[in-house]
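Page header: ASSEMBLY MODEL / two components / 579 residues total.
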Amino acid sequence: MHAISFQSISKSYRQSAPASGVSAGSAASQNQLLALDGVSLDVEEGEFIGLLGPNGAGKTTMISLLAGLTRPTSGSVSVLGHDVQADYAQARRMLGVVPQELVFDPFFNVRELLRIQSGYFGVKNNNAWVDELLESLGLADKAGANMRQLSGGMKRRVLVAQALVHKPPVIVLDEPTAGVDVELRQTLWQFIDKLNKKGHTVLLTTHYLEEAEALCGRIAMLQQGRLVALDKTSDLLKSASSNVLRFKVDGELPAELARQARITGRIVQLPAHDAIEVERFLAQVREAGLIAQDVELRKADLEDVFLDVMTRGRNAAIPDANPKEVRA
Amino acid sequence: MNGWQTLLYKETLRFWKVAFQTIAGPVLTAMLYLLIFGHALEDHVKVYNQISYTAFLVPGLAMMSLLQNAFANSSSSLIMSKVMGNLVFLLLTPLNFVHWFIAYVGASVLRGIVVGVGVFVISAPFAEMQFAAPLWILIFALMGAALMGTLGLIAGLWAEKFDQLAAFQNFVVMPMTFLSGVFYSIHSLPPFWQGVSHFNPFFYMIDGFRYGFFGVSDVSPWLSFGVVGATLLVVSILCLYLLRSGYKIRS
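Prediction written out in full:
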């Protein structure tokens, strides 16, 4: 049995503002925004899987479908064999979702909220677990504080605790570390990793690719509502056979290089397959009258793989470009 | 506590924590109505024989406060959760639409009754009160609060912003309560407005409630019971349907 199973899921949203000056027929199709387009994905029990993709790729839509917040246009989703529509009560008992938005209920303090959330699931006498959650997430001294008094990072911790009160076997984290300080990230990942080792399945979306690389055994990449890559993290890294040439430079890079490069301020990173390519890049920099400083060559990381997949996806943006064998 | 009981508890705790605003405030407002209208109109307005105007006013004010607060509880709780986004914590739970209905309406009934009793207890000493048919008092209080709690739930589901809810409150709930015979017996109205009042379900709630105190009313309590009961049924079915379909809360 799969911990999570998406079966050829499609989801289209009706867009509110109809485009003016279009004929009725095409307006109807244009007003449908296809957020997910035939996505199938199975996650095994005990897996730690990362769901990556640019903003608007459909990550949160997938999570909303899983959580029953949204209904699919076609296809089905199940959690540990329970269909999220037909058998929603069981499916939701199996699932703990940490929402992306920093939402909170201003009427209650932390412990009250956790007690109430437990009660919704019919969980009784879980004080020991609530204490463990508070302790593990560094919230022990905030248990009596009203939600309004907490900082953003503390509120984020409460979100995580709320999602876990009923000890769900499947945990979903939607960008849990967005705008969060280093300390919380470490506390959070230690805790989630511990739960994963105990057998909880974890699905994570994040824009921090080094986190995904470090934590996730498998990675799925979404682009414009389609699954464009799905593989073990280690295999994805291996498949990116290239190295990356990294250097700093003052001044503007020649257009040809700039097209291939990932540029962050003064730092330039170029995928290089062999020594000849490295020499050619450096020569081009020199010919442009620039000096490359702090030159180093490193192995490609997940970010390079990600950018590579996304670039290929954009270039091959023809309707049938969905890769075969995307299902594990 | 199981799931729906927890939600009922949470909804009750929510208004109880801000009781100054949700209970003491409305009671004070009703007191002001009683003092001002009672003082100004006591000698001028004649309602049923042998009943003083202030005594006539007391049950009307208690019922009006009960209805308004039952409506306010479910509607403001839901719209606040929607706007703040914390409704998601409830949407993620296994609770079904019947659980939602019972918990939200139940908490509304509780708040309505608490405010209604508060208004009555504080205002009753100003007039000589009777209890001609206490069972009718209880029935109309419960049905009225449930009806308004349900309406509030519908309004809370429908509204996306606070001002939409305020519009519902100002342009539907307030006129209907004020024009329902809280401050007058509809027999004192011109025939046309008497006729109009008969289409206002609020009129029957207040008239039936008042019958429980004085044993006299503008229409038979059984008619009021029928109208209020039927309205409650229709509104409840609509509300349950909206909840089940996830109207404006699940896309």
